[in-house]
UniProtKB/TrEMBL annotation:
Its EC number is 3.1.1.1. It holds the Pfam family Abhydrolase_3. It comes from Jannaschia rubra. The gene is nlhH. Residues 76-271 form the Alpha/beta hydrolase fold-3 domain. This is Carboxylesterase NlhH.
């Protein structure tokens, strides 16, 4: 098993475990959501100065829109993580506000429908509806963490299939992309802090059937990635999902797509919330913001 020895990361893990019971992923969706929201609230930071946020509906989907007082042209569509079961506008509120502050770009966070009440393609349909409702000048970028990374990749695949406007660039942060879970990281990091293999098994089949062959539910099943936009793939080294990001990056490069892989040593799944506790996590988040700004 990969080990975490960095004191700052260990402190983040302890703080997370204190507010999010280890068996939450085995609980009912309602209980899991309560636990997850409470944990996210522990880490929530005030919005940076100069950033405002407003809740609106775009394409019939609830969203939260972040803007800086001195904006830079362009929009970042953000899809939150949470295994398609937990999370929402509040769970990643400060992350989105800080992306807006760092890049100057408008950030649109999507409150997509959650499983198990709403199964695939509900979440992707919501993300697609918001994407199509975007306006304004400058580049349009897509970004998401974990399940949101899946939705970001799937959005690109869907837009290519429909011949619609593709994101100008995409960032996938420790994404879950629907592999068969046989890559080495699933064994090496089976007992990783904050996300174990058994947690992934609890989520498996909730969003889409485990045997689904739809690449818009399981992007790693896509046979052809030509025509997709440039991407940044960020993985955490101590994460069972690590190798899914590597596999996606390799497939993109094989298709001739410009792709950058950043694997962060010592970091664990969910490290976006550690960006104010850990230099490693702060550096990773800064790299994401820098890529989106460029």
């Amino acid at each position: 098993m990969s080990r975490v020895t960095d004191p700052e990361v260990l402190a983040f893990i302890r703080r997370t475990e204190e507010s999010y019971p280890g068996d939450s992923n085995q609980a009912s969706a309602a209980e899991n959501r309560r636990n997850y929201d409470a944990m996210c609230a522990v880490f929530h930071r005030p919005h940076p100065a100069g950033v405002t946020a407003a809740d609106r509906t775009l394409g019939g989907v609830p969203c939260r829109i972040y803007e800086r007082s001195d904006p830079v042209a362009g929009t970042v569509l953000f899809s939150h993580g949470g295994g398609f079961v937990v999370g929402g506008l509040d769970s990643h509120d400060d992350v989105c506000a800080e992306i807006c502050a760092a890049t100057g770009r408008r950030v649109v966070s999507v409150d997509y429908r959650l499983a198990p009440e709403h199964v695939h393609p509900a979440a992707l349909d919501d993300v697609t509806a918001v994407w199509r409702a975007l306006d304004g000048e400058g580049p349009r970028l897509a970004c998401g963490d974990s399940a949101g990374g899946n939705l970001t990749a799937a959005l690109c695949l869907r837009m290519r299939r429909l011949g619609s406007r593709m994101p100008d660039g995409a960032v996938l942060i420790y994404p879950g992309l629907g592999s068969d879970m046989t890559a080495p990281s699933f064994d090496l990091n089976a007992e990783a802090p904050l996300l174990r293999r058994e947690d992934l098994m609890a989520y498996k089949g909730v969003h889409a059937p485990a045997d689904s062959t739809d690449p818009e539910a399981r992007p790693l099943l896509a046979r052809d990635l030509t025509g997709l936009p440039p991407m940044l793939i960020v993985t955490a080294d101590v994460d069972p999902l690590r190798d899914e990001g590597t596999m996606w990056n390799d497939a993109l490069r094989d298709a001739g797509i410009t792709s950058t892989l950043r694997n962060d040593a010592q970091l664990v799944h969910g490290h976006l919330r550690a960006r104010h506790m850990s230099k490693r996590a702060a550096d990773s988040f800064a790299a994401v913001c820098d890529w989106l700004a460029r």
